[in-house]
Amino acid sequence: MKKVCINSYGDSSCLEFSELILNTPLASNDIKISVKATSINPIDVMKREGYGKSIFEKQRKELFPWILGTDVAGTILEIGDNVTRFNIGQDVWGSSTNPNRGTYCDVAFFHEDELDVKPTNLSFQEAAALPYAAITTWSALIRWAGLRPHDIENKKVFIQGGSGGIGTYAIQLFKNLGCYVATTCSQKNLDLLENIGADEVINYETTNFQEILSEYNIVYDLLGGDQEKNCIDILSKNNSSHYITLVHPFMSTLDAKGLFLGLPAAIAKRQQLKKKYKPINYHWAVYRPSLSALIELTRITQEGKIKPIINKVYSLEEISAAHDHVETGHASGKIIIDMEK
Questions:
Q1: What SS3 string covers 292-313?
Q2: Residue 143 phi/psi, 5° resolution?
Q3: Is 149 helix (H, G, I), strand (E, B) or coil?
Q4: Is the pLDDT of residue 149 over 90?
Q5: What percent of the chain clears pLDDT 70, i.e. is strictly above it?
């Protein structure tokens, strides 16, 4: 078994390649997968550095070694006794944030509800680019903002930071819902985002988006930080407007203060901001598993409505370089790990 794990938190040099065989039992609802491809998500880099340890350490059966990775595209090797949706030999895709089951390896174990049959019009590399980004966005809209597709149709949507893996997926999703989509990126990514459907692409190196945009219905903020207020300022000032961000201090507050003190402190901070920005609806979002989201992703991808955007492909042995690439913050689309490269 080829795998990459960490034995301590740190920079990309702590990622260690190994061929140690792991004897993992197959539970009744689990599926054993020959991993053909996975991806590097920013959350993987953050976990490597110790982000979320206040929660993830409590969930892990063993603290180290820890195999990271969330996305998977591969072929079923074995199924548990209670698995009914799949057969051995099928190609599948999915994602998981189970801290005991990473995907930086050539054999992985997933619960059946974290997988669906891979679209036939995608390669394994392409399939590894989408699940985490898509389910994260689905969670943000459906779970955290309480929106449904019909609530989003034909709205004006601004995506702050549209050139990454989540941004390039979100642009296409909102366009397929009939939305007018504006987004930001650097000069080198202007054509890419226009080509995947963005109606208005703003070069943040030369233009302040808040000076030219107004009366938007939804902001999907993928960058956070000191631009939060500017994002909120372009929204219509009513209770049908939504600000949704993936970059917020919830987990870092828990890490800094511990669960006992951190949880109420984080909730209090969020409530303070909700009150501050009323009547606009203010949301912090995080990934939540969703089989329905994955099934919908399979459908719209099979229909050709979503196109995976891949920046570069690395081998598993090159994973430290792949992490370094993601850490630059300048990757357009997804960084993929090809297990067969």
A1: HHHHHHHHHHHCCCCCCCEEEE
A2: -75, -45
A3: helix
A4: yes
A5: 100
Instruction: Read off the pTM.
Output: 0.96
Q: Give the count of beta carbons closer than 10 Å to the beta carbon of residue 265.
A: 16
Residue 223 tokens read as 């960058």
Cα 75 to Cα 123: distance, rounded to the nearest angstrom: 12
**Predicted confidence (pLDDT) at residue 263 exceeds the cutoff of 80:** yes
> Given this model, what pLDDT does residue 75 score?
98
pLDDT at 48: 98
Instruction: Output DSSP code: residue 144.
Output: I
How far apart CA 321 and CA 96 sit, in angstroms, is 23
Mean pLDDT of the chain: 96
Q: Token pair for residue 269?
A: 């901070």
Structural domains of the chain sorted by starting position, each given as residue range(s) with its CATH number in brackets: 3-129+308-338 (3.90.180.10), 146-284 (3.40.50.720)
DSSP codes joined into one string, 170-233: HHHHHHHTT-EEEEEE-GGGHHHHHHTT-SEEEETTT--GGGT--SBSEEEESS-GGGHHHHHH
Q: How would you classify the pairing of strands 15-18 and 30-40?
A: unpaired
Chain length of the chain: 341
- List the beta strands (DSSP E) in 13-105: 15-18, 30-40, 71-79, 91-95
